[in-house]
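Q: FMN-binding protein, please. Structure only.
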Amino acid sequence: MNFKHIVFTLLALALLSFGLPKNIQKKVDKQIKATFEVEHFSLNPIVIDSELAKTLPSKFGLDNLFEIKTDSTFLAYAYISKAASKTDNFDYLVLLDKDLIVIKAKVLVYREDYGGEIGSKRWLKQFIGKTQNDELRYQDNIIAISGATISVRSMTNAMNDLLKSLKILHSKQVL
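A: Structure for FMN-binding protein:
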């Protein structure tokens, strides 16, 4: 292991101690418990090499891609990120099975007065079953929402970027 990798590892460990904001962590925990019907689980961060991370369409930091386990049994992957709305960002969660198929998408925190409909189960269910080989297209295979055009496009683009990133990470045998 060279000096660069040692420094990166130490930096990653130091930054991991900060973790997700408490309000986001609480909502993520609630979604995992409900989705997998478990009470106890661990979120283990997946650290992606910084050089590889720079090449990916999605943003990967030290606290947004996790392996979910209960005891020593793998349950799923969790990806937590932000996407743009009209004047702010919203936080969202994507849960993926072992084959990197979307099993749940959830808007965790939406900070606008309008467009919150993207957080509805009905709208978000269109992402379930999507894989790294799918391409999402606004007003084609992704339904538009009146009054939420920016947020819908943003979430669609964010999901496309995630799916493309997952394809790369899978091909590089990171996931």
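A: Brief note, in case it's useful. The chain has a mean pLDDT of 86.
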